[in-house]
Write a structure and sequence with these properties.
Blueprint: E1 10-12, H1 16-26, H2 47-50, E2 61-70, E3 78-88, E4 94-105, E5 110-124, E6 130-144, E7 149-151, E8 174-186, E9 190-197, E10 215-222, E11 224-231, E12 234-249, E13 252-263, E14 266-273, E15 286-295, E16 298-307, H3 310-314, E17 318-327, H4 330-338
Antiparallel strand pairs: 1-7, 2-3, 2-17, 3-4, 4-5, 5-6, 6-8, 8-9, 9-10, 10-12, 11-12, 12-13, 13-14, 14-15, 15-16, 16-17
């Protein structure tokens, strides 16, 4: 995200908010004229945000709530909430979804709400290989409040805050639309996906133009099963899944590699973000620990980002929680198999 303020003299009411601006830079905002998207440490719990083609690939329907608190030691912390829901239609080739994101930065009064719909179409290529294509369209609203800002004309000679500022506060809320597409090729043991978001590159600037550049994401992985069985409709597995992801947006790039281990109903994993890439100098290095448990139709995940860079370590890591309600109809799946209308489930992690 990007916040561009006028060049008149002001200061924040809380000194720690200066750190918030530095944190913005550490999140990848490399230019005052460009914005960037938020990041989730549990990409597969928030899979439709990563790629719209994931709609309907894990369950007949699911609802997921996610919350991320970045740099919790700062007074103006970065907080993100997400509601995601997908539903596989009666025709199993189609699925729809809803995705709502709300970002808030307390120190500078910045909020962004983005809500949209997702559609995915699933096609069987062979008996074991399938392809899903998806698209998303979203509406966004961002605004900034002035309660935490103190302008120069409010300060007396001894530094005491005086009357209201005469500065013109003309930051009107910004409305925008954005669209994205993606695809996932998958089989019983592997998946490979690609997505492009913000194809139309909307303008998020409050006063001057601030383009939200296209975000390209590649993701994939392989799952090796030590045990896979289904008894009385209950699926059980013991598996290990290495994963990889690459993101490019507005001249910045990020590469990460992860490893997940699952023994039903528990999943644990670790993701290393900040793999050095050609043309990317001194990337932020983060090690994320992930743990999740499935109980019936519910799925609970937690992750913590442990930064390996000096600045981010000083302001704290990031906590992320996801809670999902999921449902998969085994009888309906058996009927689809008889009618040769079923599709393999994508084997990506659930957290």
């Amino acid at each position: 995200m990007c916040l561009r303020l006028p060049h008149s003299s002001f200061r924040f009411a809380r000194p720690s908010s200066w750190l918030a601006l530095g944190a913005l830079a550490s999140l990848g905002v490399h230019s005052a004229a460009q914005a960037q998207d938020l990041y989730f440490a549990q990409p597969y719990a928030n899979r439709m945000y990563q790629n719209p083609a994931y709609a309907g690939l894990l369950d007949d329907y699911s609802i997921t709530l996610s919350y991320r608190n970045q740099f919790p030691t700062l007074a103006g912390t970065f907080q993100t909430s997400q509601l995601a829901a997908d539903y596989r239609l009666r025709d199993p080739r189609s699925a729809v979804g809803v995705l709502i994101n709300y970002d808030r930065t307390g120190g500078i009064g910045y909020t962004r709400l983005q809500a949209g719909g997702v559609y995915a179409y699933h096609a069987r290529l062979t008996e074991q290989l399938a392809l899903s294509g998806g698209a998303s369209v979203s509406y966004g609203l961002q605004r900034v409040s002035y309660g935490n800002l103190i302008f120069g004309d409010q300060l007396t000679d001894d530094g005491v805050v005086g009357s209201q500022s005469l500065e013109v506060r003309d930051y009107q809320p910004v409305h925008y639309f954005t669209a994205g597409v993606g695809g996932v090729l998958y089989a019983e043991r592997f998946w490979l996906g690609a997505s492009v978001h913000h194809i139309n590159q909307p303008d998020l600037g409050f006063i001057t133009q601030s383009i939200l550049p296209m975000r390209l994401n590649l993701q994939g992985g392989y799952k090796y099963y030590f045990l896979k069985s289904s008894v009385k409709g209950e699926s059980r597995e013991v598996s290990v899944a290495p994963t990889a992801s690459y993101t490019y947006q507005g001249g910045s790039q990020r590469a990460e590699a992860g490893l997940y281990f699952t023994t039903t109903p528990i999943t644990v994993g670790a993701v290393y973000r900040g793999i050095p890439l050609p043309g990317s100098s001194h990337p932020q290095q983060v090690l994320t620990a992930i743990a999740g448990v499935s109980v019936g139709s519910f799925r609970l995940g937690y992750s913590y980002d442990m930064s390996l860079s000096q600045f981010s370590a000083a302001v704290g890591g990031a906590h992320e929680i996801s809670l999902s309600l999921r449902e998969f109809d085994a009888l309906e799946a058996a009927w689809r198999r008889l009618k040769r209308r079923n599709y393999p489930l994508v084997p990506c992690p659930a957290f």
